Each structure stands twice: as C-alpha cells, then as structure tokens.
Fold this sequence. Notes:
Low-confidence stretches: 1-49
Helix content: 25-40%
CATH class: Alpha Beta
Mean pLDDT: 84
Largest sheet: 9 strands, mixed
Number of strands: 17
CATH architecture: 3-Layer(aba) Sandwich
Number of domains: 1
CATH superfamily: Alkaline Phosphatase, subunit A
Order of helices and strands: HEHEEHEHHEEHHHHHHEHEEEEEEEEHEE
Radius of gyration: 22 Å
Strand content: 5-15%
Shape: globular
CATH topology: Alkaline Phosphatase, subunit A
Structural class: alpha/beta
Distance between the termini: 27 Å
Amino acid sequence: MTWLDDQNQEANSFSRRRLLRNSSVAVGAFALPTAFGVAQTARAEQPATAGPPAKRAIVILLQGGCSHLDTWDLKPDASLEIRGEFKQIATSVAGYQCSEHLPLLAQRVHNFNVLRSVYHETPSHEAAIHWVLTGYNYPGANTTTKNRNDKPAMGSIVARTLGSRTPGLPPYVCVPDKGQLGDRVRYASSHFLGMAYDPFESGMPPSDAKSPFQMPPNLSLTKAVDLTRFDHRLKLLGELDQFSRSLDSSDMMSGMSQFNRRAFDMVSSVATRNAFDLSQEPEALRQRYGNTRVGQEAILARRLAEAGVPFTLVNFSINQDWDTHSGGFETLRKTRLPNFDRAISTLLDDLQERGMLDSTLVAVITEFGRTPKINATAGRDHWSDVFSIVLAGGGLKSGQVIGTSNSRGEVPHDRPVHYNDVLATIYQQLGVPTDRVHYDEGRPVPVLYSGKPIDELL
C-alpha cells in the first residue's frame, strides 16, 4: 500500500493565479469559462483501442451512501432492528430477492449483475467519495483544506486514454457537475493530468419530462460575438498566448494548447448541441424515464453515450440525497427508490432497444453502505465494511448475484470484492490498462495501485 503513503502532498505546483493571468484574454474575449479546455482530445497522444467490448461507460453515483440492507441485500430473518421495514420480492433471477420498492429492476436482474460483498476501508463521506471516483484513499479528506482531488478521477483517466471519439464532443462529461456534498468537494476532476482531461459539466437538467434542456450555458456565445468573430479572436489569442506557454511546460498548460480550437469546435458543433438537446426526445420516452430530475439525468446520459461521449458520470444527488441518517425508510419509500427504479430500469431498456447495452457499461455505485443496526431516528449511518454495486452491459456477463454478506449485513460472508476490483473491471472493459503509470512531478502514480477484474463477470 505504498502508493497511499504520500496522499497529503499537494501534487500540482501550477499556480492558479498564473493560469488566470495567462488565460484572461481568452475568458474576456470569448465570454466562455475555462471549462472548454476539458475537451482536448487525447487521440494523437493515446490512440483509442479498437478491441475492448465497452465503447463507453455511464457511471451513476448514489452520493450519500445507499443502504444495501434496504435495496439489494435484505435480511428478512434478522431481528427487526436489522431487517427494517421493507419486504423482499422475487426477481427474474431464480432464488434472488430484492427490495419491494424496486419492482421494475426486480424484473430485469437477468440483464445486470448485483455485487453484494463490496468493501473498502473508510466510512468518511469525503474520503470514500474520493476512493470510489479515483481508486485511492485520501486520509483526512474534508470540505475545506482537502476538497479537491489527490489523484485523477476515473473519468479523467478514461479521457486521457481514449480521447474524444466524436469531433466537437468532450471525452468526459459530469451530469450535472463535478461536485459532491453540495459542491463542497470536487473529486471528479483530473488533478495532475491537466485541465484537458477535466470533465465538461452539463448543468442541471430539468426536474420534469416536459421542460427543455437544449444546451449547457458553457456552449453559448454572447450576443455580441458571432462564430466568425469568435474564430478571429481564437487566432489572436493563439498569438498572444505563445510566449506565456513557452515559459511553462506543465501538464496544466499543455492542457490549454488546444483550448482555443476546441472551444470553437464545441460551440459551433451541431453534434455537441444535439447531444444535450432533450427536446429531441419524444415526451413519452422522457416520461418513461420519470417526471423527475434523476429521470432526465438518466436520459441525458443515454443521449451523451449515443452521441459518442466515452465516459459520463451522473450524480443522482444534489446534496447527499442517499445519506439517510434520519427517517430513512420514509425517504427511500416515497422518493429515492421509486425514482431510481424507474430511471435505471428505463435506461437499461432504452440502451438494449437501441442495440447499445452490449457496448455501454453501466455502473451504479455509492461511496459506502449503511449500518446494519437502525439508529434511534429510524435511519442508518455510514458503513464501508460491506455494500452493494450494480454493473451491466459493456461486454459483461449478466444475471449474476456475486458474493454475500453475513446474516446481519455487516461484512462479506463469501467472495469479498474490494472496490478497486470494480474499478479494474470497468477499466478493463473500456481498454484502459490499470498498470499504466502517470507521473505527478516525477512521482509514478499507477492508474490503480491494486485491484483486478472480477472473473465471474468476464
């Protein structure tokens, strides 16, 4: 575990103030945020591999910590303080039962896999979110002094390796943004890989199936700047920036090297605007996904995958929505589980109907589970010793329920799966070598310091 010893060292010495000074002409001239630097293609540096079964991934984050005991790993024979209020229902996989509040997904378990013995080593929101998004622990992670990545997020690793496969589209998108814990931490970023591999943020989708969501604000020009003038300003900026670039050869500045042209490509690209334009979807299909924000996030993720975005991270939480310390059963029963059930079941159906599921890996992750024992306020607290993950598509086998927890849902009983094995499986299916080493100021940092693909899924 030597790769975890230096977690507290600040990895990127690039000065934010210097970046703002060097790029201020771009911001002022274009009225565009620096988010346009995120979409630089890595194709020239890291050609995409043709062989892997998964051409794209959609990762759904149930931020806050989804209770395994009330969804995928119920304990009907345990005492009341453990088993809780929810009953089991049969699923499409013989012998396996899940929560009664997941009836749509219960009918589709044969199309995905449930991992019930996943674990990692931290019950802290900040450190656990960092872990599930990067594969690295972050001791002492918090919302003030350690609220940015200590290692690159998996979306940034994928963006660096696969690049942008469709002109004008970013290789990595976060829906709605790259923040967690109410945007108090941002662990979905690229860190030392450079801003070229940071995610493009979609902005908040509508909370119903009728409202439009045509294009993120970052893809809009001011009324005073048309595309011709914008192109002229790009060329001027290139000349003005040449000197400052020559003074700084860091990855951050190299990420700016195609900032100008990529910004123009994205703003002017019909493919880009169409990818985010939910109004092109039939209202009946949007209703199938759910007349909710999470439903519209899910259909937006499908549009992005279909358009050619290699990696989309979808945050189903605005601010710890799954952190059910108090009144957890009521919250799960009324909103969280019904909305999730509809959105994910429709996403899987939609991908399958379009012939995309075999080549699209869908992962439903959470930073940890919840305590086996119900607390005094009818909720469950943080628990990382065992929790559940769902994986589907992307060339994986399906209909498998892997691993069990013990009779109280406390620890893995058989086939323990470290969370890094989940990441290793995702990376392998996408064609990302997990032993590849990147360098942070001369220090080697592997994509994963540990973890191997889950054999039963391959």
